[in-house]
Amino acid sequence: MSESNVTIAGLHVYPVKSCAGVDLxxxxxxxxGLEFDRAWMLVDDQGESVSQRELPxxxxxxxxxxxSELVLRAPGMLALHLALDTVDAAVRVRIWNDDVAAYDxxxxxxxxxxxxxxxxxRLVRFDPEQKRLASRAWTGAIEAxxxxxxxxxxxxxxxxxxxxxxxxxxxxxxxxxxxxxxRPNVVLTGLDAHGEDFLDEITFDTPEGAVRLKLVKPxxxxxxxxxxxxxxxxxxxxGDTLAxxxxxxxxxxxxxxxxxxxxxxxxxxxxxxxxxxxxxxxF
Length: 283
Prior knowledge:
By secondary structure, this protein is mainly beta. The chain has helices at 107-117, 136-139, 159-171, 239-243; strands at 3-13, 22-24, 26-30, 33-34, 40-43, 49-50, 62-65, 69-73, 80-83, 90-95, 98-104, 122-126, 154-158, 186-189, 199-206, 209-220, 247-248, 254-265, 270-272, 276-281. The radius of gyration is 18 Å and the shape is globular. The mean pLDDT is 97.
């Protein structure tokens, strides 16, 4: 194994799946990833999850985590305040192929999102007693739990990978894009462009003990990065540019950027911006 060091340059959680993220200096690692990440989700009247794939205007919903509440804001809407310790009725919802336990967040939250997005929707919260596991084909012996993320608990992306994309966009006379488009949880510096593709594990030494993350699957890219987070309008970039150089044979030639990761060690320990981690390479 070859080792090198990386630094955490950014930590991001996305409390409501497909809404804007929250930048944090420090965040607790729990069984499903970073605390409060994708803990809430919108569903249609059939209980099926919805995201920016169907409703790109979700990008305009901004979240703020306070001591005891989640505050949601959107253009033309009064702020919605949701207590972190309060849920409504137990429900069953569907995300991809998984039927999972959740809690409805009540009529006010449902009306707020339905008004903003102009169709009937309910806001639900993941039931922490639910065990939703990522595919063992990628995690191996590790039982990796996730809340309402697409499948894996964490997404890791290097700043160098974004910089390399923006260089290619500039060459094509396309405006640069921000990290927001790709919705990572952990942003790293200290790697070459796409260096995360070749990492096996990252170990961070924290005051509470070690945190070990294992990078298991390239993140295949859907159209969501083509949604402008400032306007909620879908386009074709940066997807078109990524398609010219990021076809990944590990996932059948799909376009990828970043790596999905699972937790080997470190539940109930905190990650902090500025932390230095030791990496090992996969050969």
